[in-house]
Amino acid sequence: MDDKFIEELREISRNDKRRSEFLIKGMKETLQERKEKNFIERWIWRQKNKKLIARKFKS
Predict the structure, then answer these.
(1) Spatial distance between the Cα atoms of 3 and 23, rounded to a whole number of angstroms
(2) Which UniProt keywords apply (predicted)?
(3) Domain span including residue 33
(4) Number of compact structural domains in the chain
(5) Pseudo-torsion of CA 52, 31, 36, 49, nearest 10°?
(6) How far apart are CA 35 and CA 29, in angstroms?
(7) CB atoms within 10 A of CB 26
(8) What was the pLDDT predicted at 5?
């Protein structure tokens, strides 16, 4: 999700039906972008996240 998406999301009321539709659309776009990345980029991203999670629970 980019900054423009987040700004638009903040402008929509929490009780508005468009908000949920907008969130679903944003998540679909994010997942599609991740699928389009090549294998090496996805692997590196997962390794970074594993290290961050391990540091949080190590202490």
Answers:
(1) 14
(2) Exonuclease, Hydrolase, Nuclease
(3) 1-55
(4) 1
(5) 0
(6) 10
(7) 16
(8) 80
Nearest CA to 45 out of 36, 54, 37, 57 is that of 37
Count of helices and strands (H, E) across the chain: 3, 0
Give per-residue pLDDT as tens, 7-17. Answer: 888 888 878 78
Distance, in Å, from the CA atom of 24 to the CA atom of 18, rounded to the nearest integer, reads 10
**Secondary structure class of 2 (helix, strand, coil):** coil
- Give the phi and the psi of residue 29 in degrees, each rounded to 5: -65, -40
What sign does the dihedral 52-26-22-8 (CA atoms) show? positive
Say how many Å lie between the first and final Cα of the chain, rounded. Answer: 31
